[in-house]
């Protein structure tokens, strides 16, 4: 009867919530402390808390942007390494919150199993990525070829081992808490690992698909904060009382304009627009190609309604800039909902930030709550509107077939080209 009672308690708390609290030892908030460096504290001691927070956030934001430029300069391999490090840190922050909020200090194997499942899921996702993008290298090395061939079976066996370990770790007095934390771990894996995997996939499509979306989210975050700080009057959403409509709208227009300008600049450089590929001869990543139509200047007619306003009939721009409007619009209108979701999560467990990693900003997850949602959108957008059949991957798969299968495909393709008159015309030429 106690578990099925639905009468609402104080602050939306139900009877079942109270019961869970008693079992988990209460839900006191995770303590937070002032993590601002002492140098900044002394330098800004004469300012009010509002302006002090503004300067701390501003200085640390500039530092993070500088670090972002440095890792871009260092190339794709460093970017992928950073994405992996961010993924691990975000996973650690969320798991630690569950560990502290639910007071799960006595659970056997909880942290060990959490990190083991992280290893399993990463092996599953990145194993297939390695096979796709490092095909020749994988086929050249016997151990890698075996791991690639039986990748899914090995992944399932690893996960099944963790599942059995969890069942064996169940303790009579902690059944419910252990299943809570089992679910907590898997939801965290779904949010963090899956979406960081998509970020790396976007990177392989070309660094521009990695840099522009991330930069749009950063720009929207900064400009929404600036507009809200100086002009904000109207609350936007109860989950984040400091967010205002003025900041939301100002951030939107600023982000769309920023996306157009950044896309124009980056579309002229092959190092940003070409897919990231692995060169088997040099055993290194290469970014060199003939730019696709997306990154070649084209002339577009301006709608008649706007011609009298701007005074132009046509405009030359890259097709990617049109796609950048969709990316920046999502980053400014839908992306913030990733932040609102994180705010609701933190309110549910009475914590201010995910961690104290970055002074004035919170934890790494506080900075990447919108980025993960953005990465998923970009991956879906590329698959739906940009990516077509990849000839190089088809050839890779073709070369793994038996000689008789290759010959059958060759004869079928030859007959098809002859029927269409393509092969005959080539031979005549």
Task: Please tag this protein with its features.
lipid biosynthesis, 429 residues, two-stranded antiparallel ribbon, phospholipid metabolism, 69% helix, Phosphatidate cytidylyltransferase, 19 helices
Structure write-up:
By secondary structure, the protein is mostly helical. The chain has a domain at 38-271 and 326-388. The protein contains 19 helices and six strands. It has helices spanning 15-24, 38-43, 49-74, 76-101, 110-133, 135-140, 142-149, 151-169, 175-204, 207-231, 245-266, 270-273, 304-310, 319-333, 336-348, 364-386, 391-399, 403-419, 422-428, and strands at 235-237, 240-244, 277-279, 284-286, 298-301, 314-317. The chain crosses the membrane at residues 109-126, 153-171, 178-200, 206-232, 244-266, 320-342. GO terms for molecular function: phosphatidate cytidylyltransferase activity. This is Phosphatidate cytidylyltransferase. Residues 1-22 have a biased composition (Basic and acidic residues).
How are the SSEs placed, and which strands pair?
Layout: H1 15-24, H2 38-43, H3 49-74, H4 76-101, H5 110-133, H6 135-140, H7 142-149, H8 151-169, H9 175-204, H10 207-231, E1 235-237, E2 240-244, H11 245-266, H12 270-273, E3 277-279, E4 284-286, E5 298-301, H13 304-310, E6 314-317, H14 319-333, H15 336-348, H16 364-386, H17 391-399, H18 403-419, H19 422-428
Antiparallel strand pairs: 1-2, 3-4, 5-6
Helix pairs in contact: 4-9, 5-8, 5-9, 9-10, 9-16, 10-11, 10-14, 10-16, 11-14, 15-16
Strand content: 5-15%
Largest sheet: 2 strands, antiparallel
The SSE order reads HHHHHHHHHHEEHHEEEHEHHHHHH
The helix content is 55-70%
What is the rounded Rg?
26 Å
Spans of 5+ residues with little confidence (pLDDT < 50)? 1-33
SS-based class: mainly alpha
Spatial order of the strands in the main sheet? 1-2
Number of strands: 6
Q: Tell me the overall shape.
A: flat
State mean pLDDT (0 to 100 scale): 82
N- to C-terminal distance: 85 Å
Helix run count = 19
């Amino acid at each position: 009867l106690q578990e099925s009672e639905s009468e609402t308690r104080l602050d939306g708390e139900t009877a079942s919530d109270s019961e869970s609290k008693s079992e988990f030892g209460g839900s006191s908030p995770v303590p937070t402390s002032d993590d601002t460096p002492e140098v900044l504290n002394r330098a800004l001691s004469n300012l009010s808390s509002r302006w002090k927070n503004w300067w701390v956030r501003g200085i640390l934001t500039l530092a993070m942007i500088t670090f972002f430029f440095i890792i871009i300069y260092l190339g794709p391999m460093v970017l992928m390494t950073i994405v992996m490090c961010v993924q691990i840190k975000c996973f650690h922050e969320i798991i630690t919150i569950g560990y502290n909020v639910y007071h799960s200090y006595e659970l056997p194997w909880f942290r060990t199993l959490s990190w083991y499942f992280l290893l399993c899921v990463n092996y599953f996702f990145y194993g297939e990525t390695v096979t796709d993008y490092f095909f020749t290298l994988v086929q050249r090395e016997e151990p890698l070829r075996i791991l690639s061939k039986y990748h899914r079976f090995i992944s399932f066996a690893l996960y099944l081992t963790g599942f059995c370990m969890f069942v064996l770790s169940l303790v009579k007095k902690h059944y419910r808490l252990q299943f809570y934390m089992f679910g907590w771990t898997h939801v965290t894996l779904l949010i963090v690992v899956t979406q960081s995997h998509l970020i790396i996939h976007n990177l392989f499509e070309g660094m521009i698909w990695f840099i522009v979306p991330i930069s749009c989210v950063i720009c929207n975050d900064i400009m929404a904060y600036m507009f809200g700080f100086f002009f904000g009057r109207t609350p936007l959403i109860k989950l984040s009382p400091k967010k205002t409509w003025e900041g939301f709208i100002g951030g939107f227009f600023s982000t769309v304009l920023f996306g157009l300008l950044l896309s124009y600049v980056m579309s002229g450089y092959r190092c940003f627009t070409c897919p990231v590929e692995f060169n088997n001869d040099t055993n290194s990543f290469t970014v060199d190609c003939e730019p696709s139509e997306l990154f070649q200047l084209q002339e577009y007619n301006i709608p008649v309604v706007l011609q009298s306003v701007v005074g132009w009939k046509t405009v030359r721009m890259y097709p990617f800039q049109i796609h950048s409007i969709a990316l920046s619009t999502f980053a400014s209108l839908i992306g913030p909902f990733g932040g609102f979701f994180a705010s609701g999560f933190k309110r549910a467990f009475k914590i201010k930030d995910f961690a104290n990693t970055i002074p004035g900003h919170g934890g790494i997850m506080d900075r990447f709550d919108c980025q993960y949602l953005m990465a998923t959108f970009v991956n879906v957008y590329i698959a739906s509107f940009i990516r077509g059949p990849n000839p190089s991957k088809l050839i890779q798969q073709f070369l793994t077939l038996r000689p008789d299968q290759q010959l059958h495909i060759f004869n079928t393709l030859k007959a098809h080209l002859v029927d269409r008159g393509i092969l005959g015309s080539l031979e005549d030429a």
